[in-house]
TrEMBL record:
<dbReference type="InterPro" id="IPR027417">
    <property type="entry name" value="P-loop_NTPase"/>
</dbReference>
<keyword id="KW-0472">Membrane</keyword>
<keyword id="KW-0342">GTP-binding</keyword>
<keyword id="KW-0547">Nucleotide-binding</keyword>
<dbReference type="InterPro" id="IPR006703">
    <property type="entry name" value="G_AIG1"/>
</dbReference>
<protein>
    <recommendedName>
        <fullName>AIG1-type G domain-containing protein</fullName>
    </recommendedName>
</protein>
<dbReference type="InterPro" id="IPR045058">
    <property type="entry name" value="GIMA/IAN/Toc"/>
</dbReference>
<dbReference type="Pfam" id="PF04548">
    <property type="entry name" value="AIG1"/>
</dbReference>
<keyword id="KW-1133">Transmembrane helix</keyword>
<feature type="domain" description="AIG1-type G">
    <location>
        <begin position="25"/>
        <end position="228"/>
    </location>
</feature>
<keyword id="KW-0812">Transmembrane</keyword>
<comment type="similarity">
    <text>Belongs to the TRAFAC class TrmE-Era-EngA-EngB-Septin-like GTPase superfamily. AIG1/Toc34/Toc159-like paraseptin GTPase family. IAN subfamily.</text>
</comment>
<feature type="transmembrane region" description="Helical">
    <location>
        <begin position="285"/>
        <end position="305"/>
    </location>
</feature>
<dbReference type="GO" id="GO:0005525">
    <property type="term" value="F:GTP binding"/>
</dbReference>
Length: 307
């Protein structure tokens, strides 16, 4: 497929039915996610221990197409998929859907880990949007396979990452950490030697815990099955099969977005219903609170009048 890149010659992955359910066996597939400029490519290079993806500092994305590269860790084969700006709020054009389709093809039959890359101390609205887009692209269950990776670990100096996360006043970050089952780690993407090895071991410890939790299962959905079928059919980028596949990608993302919006409306309705039920149960208390508020306002008016 045009723009599809895989590093190395040993990137062919076994199908879902041939994968062992034992953590640590066969391929480990990791998809890098996050906002533009968060350091996804540099993080991928740190994981693989080689400059597999182009990376440079800047506000604009260097990565224009989905790419995959492979490496090993403690004898286990790792496939890392780097992504262009498909997790942005404005990411809705045809090229974006082609990149989403490529991401599915490169990580089929499904990723074990969605690695959300964000800079330490800079979890912003763009990161929140990126998390929402991850759910739209991969489904609401995506967070069950998500690990948060903070870049710029060196900024902690002698501080603890656990203390930073536990004591942050960023409520959205704290909520995301809870949703992700407290799975997080940090990288200094300029590290080398023993330091790089130690932080990679930290990530792999989190990943292995995630795999044990899911008994080795990876994230999968109907679109991953479609991606596998396209691969088995040869995957001609100009063929009718590929055109149909891209149409399924678009409809899949649209449905996921609709489902998320419906779920949000349901949560809001249930919250209002809980408030209503509380008021019904505590009607006397509510009446008392209203009278107390009116009395307080009256006292304020009297004081203001006599000033």
């Amino acid at each position: 497929m045009e723009g599809l890149q895989k590093g190395g010659e040993d990137t062919c992955i076994k199908g879902g039915g041939e994968e062992s359910l034992n953590p640590g066996s066969f391929w480990l597939r990791i998809v890098l996610a996050g906002k533009t400029g968060c350091g996804k490519s540099a993080t991928g290079n740190s994981i693989l221990g080689q400059p597999a993806f182009e990376s440079r500092l800047g506000a604009q994305s260097v990565t224009r197409k989905c790419q995959a590269a492979t490496g090993t860790w403690n004898g286990r084969s790792i496939l890392v998929v780097d992504t262009p700006p498909i997790f942005e709020a404005r990411a809705q054009d045809q090229e974006v859907y082609e990149n989403i389709g490529d991401c599915y093809l490169l990580s089929a039959p499904g990723p074990h880990v969605l690695l959300l890359v964000t800079q330490l101390g800079r979890f912003t609205e763009q990161d929140v949007v990126a998390v929402t887009r991850v759910k739209e692209v991969f489904g609401a269950r995506a967070l069950r396979h998500m690990v948060i990776l903070f870049t710029h670990k060196e900024d902690l100096a002698d501080g603890s990452l656990h203390d930073y996360v536990a004591n942050t006043d960023n409520l959205r970050l704290r909520g995301l950490v809870r949703e992700c089952g407290q799975r997080y780690c940090a990288f200094n993407n300029r590290a080398s030697g023993d330091e790089r090895g130690e932080q990679l071991a930290g990530l792999m410890a989190v990943v292995e815990g995630l795999e044990r939790e899911h008994q080795g299962a990876y994230l999968s959905n109907d679109l991953f099955f479609d991606a596998q079928r396209l691969q088995q059919g040869g995957g001609d980028p100009h063929g009718e099969g590929h055109v149909r596949y891209l149409a399924k990608v678009r409809s899949h993302v649209a449905k996921q977005k609709q489902d998320l919006q419906e779920a949000q409306r349901n949560r809001a309705f249930k919250a209002l219903l809980r408030v209503k039920n509380w008021i019904v149960v505590h009607d006397e208390l509510c009446v008392c609170l209203v009278w107390c508020s009116l009395l307080f306002l009256l006292i304020l008016l009297i004081i203001w009048y006599h000033l």
